[in-house]
Design goal:
The chain contains 4 helices and 4 strands, in the order αβαβααββ. By secondary structure, the protein is an alpha+beta fold. Helices cover 35% and strands 10% of the residues. It has a two-stranded parallel ribbon with strand order 1-2. The two termini are 22 Å apart. The chain has one domain.
């Protein structure tokens, strides 16, 4: 699924039992969003609105990780055209308020650097 196609995002969420309109996730559901919510389609703003509302109403059901497309607004390398300032500010606010988390890179004996 392309992350920034709002209609496809809604379809995917409804397929796992989320009532997107009401902002309610089914009991026992944990959604782990692994980044790249922005830049992957025509509607980053609407996708961010959907996710932000769901995380606000059911924070225990969501784990959001920063992908490389979000990371460019949080100090990472620039990899895509810039989002409007209001969306950049929203991503920064998400990080400050723990709505999204950075993944941690580690070295392992078996695999070497893992990011």
């Amino acid at each position: 699924m392309d992350a920034c196609h709002a209609d496809r995002l809604v379809e995917a969420l409804e397929a796992i039992g989320t009532d997107v309109e009401a902002g309610v996730d089914p009991e026992g559901l944990t959604v782990i969003r692994v980044g790249d919510l922005v830049h992957k389609g025509p509607d980053s703003a609407r996708c961010m609105e959907i996710i932000e509302r769901l995380v606000a109403t059911s924070p225990a059901h969501w784990v959001q990780l920063v992908g490389n497309h979000e990371a460019q607004y949080l100090g990472g390398p620039v990899i895509a055209p810039k989002l409007p300032r209001d969306l950049q500010k929203r991503l920064r606010r998400w990080l400050k308020t723990d709505l999204v988390r950075s993944a941690i890179a580690i070295d392992t004996a078996e695999l070497g650097p893992v990011r």
